[in-house]
Design a protein that fits this description.
Chain lengths: 378, 309
């Protein structure tokens, strides 16, 4: 009975919110117009020159020359050799999860072939789903190897120093072999646009009531904080889903972004992400004293979301402190999800960390909102 | 449950260290209609908000309908109807949507029917799909009263419900208030109108955050011990200037063509009148009005607060 009454109240608030949304032309236009404008603005590539990208090494051969070549990769500044893979599968797995951007594979007999002037192969597997991140490092690979050889091959091996390349660098681009930037940007835009609109809309939730003089009435009636929160959030899940469909439609028909993974899984991720942002917006609205303040808080949050989530700059290419901030932002986790599902065809297993992170975010922020919710006019 | 609908003691409310309510005691029995009066900024709205749990008192405590005003705001909200001073229903919702929203929040049975009835009683059935923001001031007030009484609360707190309402509608408003009272609701109404004060069982007069006086209208007037003389004649306008500041004359005010002077000391008032130049003005002692009483109380209170710094 009590739960029924509670559901009734949540429904009452939802219905009111939907009607008000429909009547507020400005907001309505913003919710549909914003995704389209942003798509156009950001749809163009944003190029960067990231360094220190995480790299794993799978070396089946270990000699002074190999060590010299690997350290040349490290010294180039583009590659940061973090892990040693025990098998090619392990390297690929790291790549799929986005833990590394490259796997350098030194095949067996590398040194022997080199000494015999048999042109050994050096393989680089690259995560090209973010082409901006990978392209410069890939472009430098041959030069790095040759440079290393010129300094290493002295003394008895000097005869090998012919102008021709003695090592064949084979690059294997994964996930986005043509290196089309929009493949990466457009799914990312989905996250950016959802962040922007969802946080902004709900950040107005309570401030609008108080600025229009309705808060006193609302508080004088029997509503509990969590009912208010759910009633204010739920209608906008719908809005977020509509935006998602618009953007995914554009991704497919305008930018021909491929879709490898499961659509259902992506929708689950989108739902959780929308919820996280709506909760955050509602929290802002319980803290802000005016709509203006709510707006400022939204932008204050939006900026790091764009810059530090891996949308603008490759995540692993950022300094550690920036990555730490990035890990707290829902957009970071969502970007991994959406790129993982769309471009890599990742399944739930590869994405579970991101789901957990987003759910944790919802719980923490939701709790803050309920605690901060003003039950009085004080 | 106790027989008191409102029972609060020592309520103090400070905003940024400035006390706007300074120790209000109020014991209001169930089933009555009380008027809450006082000049602008005297703390009426603030007191009402504390009573229904919308503001937390800085000091003091009390019960409303038997519930603790600090800890049981939820229960209080279920059982009270609070009509805010400023219209606070949703102007971008239609009249019907506003009523339906309230009915849902209170989880009222037979909602559709109830909303229909309420609309019919208001005479707004035809306009039910208009935005409530498009209503005139008086109609907004009527809508608000209907909305806050829909759940049949035990206690009604009405904050200046008739501000900006025409006399005819004001009378109807009060008929409605008495009807609700007959149904068993306790009603506390804040107002600036003296005629409305006279319709109340009791009045409470607040100034500078203190209750200066309370009781039945006649008692309040009598207790103030104010003596008023009325002067009628051609020259009263000129006399007014002369009388102001004369010892014993506490205040001087015009009521149409008549001049009222009042004070506590009959002899001094009489000698002040005697000292006036002789003309055709006719003087006579009359019963002090509620308004005279309040103005004189206010002036005393003003002196007090100034003395206290
Ligand atoms: N939230 C607030 N913050 C700061 N000051 C406030 C706040 N609410 C009220 N006040 C101040 O408290 C005083 C009392 O206000 P209140 O609204 O209770 O008076 P009132 O008797 O209802 O006046 P009126 O007849 O004009 O409605 C005023 O000086 C007002 O400025
Ligand atoms: Mg007031």
């Amino acid at each position: 009975m009590d739960i029924w009454a509670s559901l009734q109240r949540i429904y009452a608030i939802m219905a009111k919110e939907l009607v008000q949304m429909r009547r507020d032309r400005m907001t309505f236009a913003m919710m549909l117009g914003l995704p389209i404008i942003q798509l156009i603005l950001f749809g163009f590539a944003i190029n960067t020159d990231p360094k220190s990208l995480p790299t794993a090494v799978y070396a089946e051969d270990n000699s002074a020359v190999v060590r010299r070549v690997l350290s040349a990769f490290e010294q180039s500044g583009y590659y940061q050799l973090l892990h040693k893979a025990k098998s090619p599968e392990q390297g690929s797995e790291w790549l799929a999860k986005g833990e590394v951007s490259f796997v350098i594979h030194i095949p067996q007999g590398f040194t022997r072939k080199l000494v015999r002037d048999e042109q050994p192969q050096l393989l680089i597997e690259a995560d090209a789903s973010d082409p901006a991140a990978a392209s410069n490092a890939i472009g430098q690979a041959k030069e790095i190897v040759n440079q290393a050889l010129r300094t290493e091959l002295l003394g008895p091996l000097a005869y090998l120093q012919t102008p021709a390349a003695q090592i064949e660098v084979v690059i294997h681009k994964r996930y986005n072999p043509e290196g089309i930037t929009q493949y990466n940007i457009v799914p990312g835009l989905l996250g950016v646009i959802l962040t922007m609109t969802c946080v902004m809309i709900t950040s107005m939730a309570m401030t609008r009531e108080s600025e229009r003089g309705n808060l006193e009435n609302l508080l004088a009636m029997p509503t509990r904080p969590h009912e208010m929160m759910l009633g204010k959030i739920c209608p906008y899940i719908l809005v977020g889903l509509v935006q998602t469909l618009v953007i995914l439609g554009a991704a497919k028909f305008l930018f021909a972004v491929p879709f490898f993974g499961s659509f259902g899984l992506l929708l689950c991720g989108v739902m959780v992400f929308i919820l996280a942002n709506l909760c955050l917006g509602f929290t802002f609205s319980t803290v802000a004293r005016s709509q203006m303040q709510a707006m400022q808080m939204t932008f204050f949050f939006f900026l790091p979301s764009i810059l530090l989530s891996g949308f603008m700059f490759p995540f692993r290419g950022m300094p550690q402190w920036a990555q730490s901030i990035g890990e707290v932002l829902p957009l970071t986790h969502f970007l991994r999800m959406v790129r993982g599902v769309m471009l890599k065809g990742n399944g739930l297993l590869a994405l579970q960390q991101e789901f957990v992170a987003l759910l944790l975010f919802i719980v923490v922020v939701g709790t803050v909102a309920i605690l901060r919710y003003r039950r009085t006019l004080d | 449950m106790s027989e008191l609908a409102i029972d609060v003691r020592g309520l103090v409310k400070r905003f940024n260290d400035k006390a706007v309510v300074r120790g209000v005691d109020l014991q209001m029995p169930k089933g009555q209609v009380w008027g809450f009066l006082g000049p602008n900024g005297s703390g009426k709205t603030t007191t009402i908000r504390m009573i229904c749990g919308l503001l937390e008192p800085s000091e003091g405590e009390g019960r409303c309908l038997g519930f603790d005003i600090r800890k049981q705001a939820r229960q209080i909200r279920d059982a009270t109807g609070y009509m805010t001073q400023k219209f606070s229903f949703w102007e971008d919702l239609t009249i019907r949507e506003n009523l339906a929203f309230v009915a849902r929040l209170y989880n009222l049975p037979k909602r559709g029917q109830l909303v229909d009835q309420t609309l019919a009683k208001l005479g707004l059935t035809e306009r039910q799909n208009q935005l409530s923001g498009a209503l005139s001031g008086g109609w907004k007030q009527r809508l608000a009263l209907a909305a806050v009484t829909m759940h049949k609360p035990d206690l009604l707190l009405l904050d200046e419900p008739t501000a900006g309402v025409d006399p005819q509608a004001r009378r109807e408003f009060w008929d409605e208030i008495h009807q609700l009272s007959n149904q068993g609701m306790t009603v506390l109404v804040s107002t600036h109108y003296m005629d409305e004060a006279e319709r109340c069982d009791k009045i409470v007069y607040l100034a500078h955050g203190n209750i200066l006086t309370q009781g039945r209208v006649a008692d309040v007037i009598q207790r103030a011990g104010l003596i008023t003389f009325q002067g009628k004649g051609e020259q009263v306008r000129r006399l007014a200037e002369q009388l102001k500041g004369t010892p014993g004359v506490e205040h001087v005010a015009f009521f149409g063509a008549a001049l009222h002077i009042s004070g506590r000391d009959r002899a001094k008032l009489q000698s002040a009148i005697q000292a006036l130049p002789k003309d055709d003005t006719h003087w006579q002692e009359i019963q002090a009005s509620l308004e005279d009483t309040f103005i004189s109380l206010m002036q005393d209170a003003g002196k007090d607060t100034r003395e206290h710094g």
